[in-house]
Amino acid sequence: MKFPNPYTLKQIANLIDCKFVGQDDFPVLGMNEIHVVESGDIVFVDHPKYYDKALQSAATIVLINKEVDCPEGKALLISDDPFRDFNKLTQHFKPFQSASKSISDSVTVGDNTIIQPNCFIGHNVTIGANCIIHSNVSIYDDAVIGDNVVIHAGSVLGASAFYYKNRPEGFDQLKSGGRVVIEDNVHIGALCTIDKGVTADTIIGAGSKLDNQIQVGHDTVIGKKCLIASQVGIAGCVVIGDEVTIWGQAGTASGITIGAKAIILGQTGVTKSVAGGKTYFGTPIDESRNKLKEFAMLRQLPKLIEKLKEL
Predict the structure, then answer these.
(1) The dihedral sign for the CA sequence 106, 112, 113, 115
(2) Are 237 and 218 in contact (CB under 8 A)?
(3) Does the pLDDT at position 43 exceed 90?
(4) Domains in the chain: ranges and CATH
(5) pLDDT class of 310 with cuts at 50, 70, 90
(6) 44-50 long-range contacts, CB within 8 A, separation 24+
(7) Which residues fall within 8 angstroms of residue 87, CB to CB, at 6 or more apart?
(8) Catalytic entry in 123, 134, 187, 218
(9) Which H or E element spans position 172?
(10) 205/295 Cα distance (integer angstroms)
(11) 47 counts as catalytic
């Protein structure tokens, strides 16, 4: 998430009331999670296991809960609770705006687009030309929808990320300030839920087709011309290459990559990253031919046991 204007390190420190290491006028251009940070971004880290990863990332400002040596060319924000202060910044730069009508006055809609009754479309949403948005679709603030997109009834675009910190008093949610971006010629079935990014974009690539009742987690990027069947659950921060097929009731772990033109068979648990151009099945995931060989061998176990008894 980029800020509307550049800020200084001192200004950001004042917003969250914390100490800082670096020049007062060190430039701060935005804030992002570690997998999408760029120069000028703030990244937060609150666990020693990830200190080095954050300090060595592309981010040039690190919001951290320990005084450490500052890498050359970077700055630090020293906080007793980086998670809380990252949320403060999200709240400051992307505050929740309540709606007073079903379709905001700030929505932009392209030529020949049809919006059926009972839809909700939030602030600053852009919808391209020749789209059909069926009844009872909810599109949260800042979503971007391309041309020739079809969204079927009851789907929700832009709900918050399922991202929580476990505190003694209960679960604390990381606020979401990102967007959902749907590229051209995408079809989204009924009752799909596509969460917005925490700080960046959740993206459905051009020409992809989603069946009914699919969950897409925050900051996930689905490539072009993908085919995803009903009841698939895709976790956050997943990268899916172009022309991937995922069949029904498959699910993924977060942060994994599925290579281009891979095929994921039904009810597979994608527990790790997999290469493109192959067919996969099972939990834990493996190439389908290997999994089928395992099943064939398992069927022989009763016969082997009987033979052992005869010895």
Answers:
(1) positive
(2) yes
(3) yes
(4) 2-93 (3.40.1390.10), 108-291 (2.160.10.10)
(5) confident
(6) 44/82, 44/83, 44/85, 44/86, 45/82, 46/81, 46/82, 46/83
(7) 174, 175
(8) 218
(9) strand 170-173
(10) 36
(11) no
Do you know the residue count of the chain? 311
Q: Which residue has the tokens 């309540």?
A: 98
Assigned token pair, 10: 């001192």
Label the pairing between strands 201-204 and 179-182. parallel
List Cβ neighbours of 311 (8 Å cut-off, separation of 6 or more).
none
Half-sphere exposure of 281 (CA within 13 A, CB side): 11
This prediction has a pTM of 0.93
Q: What whole-number distance in Å separates Cα of residue 230 and Cα of residue 189?
A: 9
| Residue pLDDT, tens place only, 280-297 | 999 999 999 998 888 888
Q: What is the DSSP letter of 250?
A: -
Q: Are 125 and 141 in contact (CB under 8 A)?
A: yes
CA atoms lying within 13 Å on the CB side of residue 70: 16
- Quick check: 270 and 251 in contact, CB under 8 A? yes
Helices 9-16 and 82-93 cross at an angle (nearest 10°) of: 110
